[in-house]
Amino acid sequence: MLDVGVHAYLRSVAGTRAHRAGPFVIRFDEHDDALPFNYAIPDDGVAPTADEVAMLVAAFRERARTPRLEYVPRAAPKVEAALLDAGFTPEGRYPLLVCPPGEVVDAPVDTTVRVALVTDDVDLWPVARVMNEAFEVPEATEHDVARLRRVLDGGGLVAAAADTTTGNVVGAGQIGRPHRGVAEVAGIAVRTSHRRRGIAGAVTALLTRAGAEAGITTPFLTPADDGAARVYARVGYRKVGEVLHISLR
Fold this sequence. Notes:
The protein is of the alpha+beta class. The chain folds into 2 domains: 2-87, no CATH class; 101-240, Aminopeptidase. Helices cover 33% and strands 27% of the residues. The chain starts with a helix and ends with a strand.
């Protein structure tokens, strides 16, 4: 079942940084308080009590992090009500999209752009800069590069799109280390100056296809808006469910 597989993958991403609070596994980033790097995943099918939710909130507060979850409601349908009762508010409900590597479609991309996988730290720095710029977060740091290095060391992939006329990296993305064949395509980013040239689709298609050789049979992603969803649909991704982001401010 894909929902359970996505949850298992998200728990695996937490790795050695995982913290358990009641029926929740929490991913904390000790260097970065950004919401996407600090969230909990509930156990499948759990019906958390008020005390267990309070335990979850306390774990976040102790680390000066916003209590929040990213999960597939269908895998734990009784969790949302317990969170709402505790004052949590949904941030958004995002489509869960998948595309088997064999079904990926190559979308047209600007001929002045070359998309390729990268592995060296010297190439990870511009990738981190493009990602941070696109998502409007501070300048890239060694921690951002180390995060990408962990993706690679774990068996995931990182891609960069370069403008061949300048040599500058103008787009990027990653696919995480697989867990039982499941992995997330994330961090798809394009510099403002190079948007609407097919770069996001090309990066996504490359990561999806190359992921097969890395043992990824079920790549998934969660677009932030309808525009992004259309980009991913053009390279073969289709909706199979929903992911909920919910937090307590």
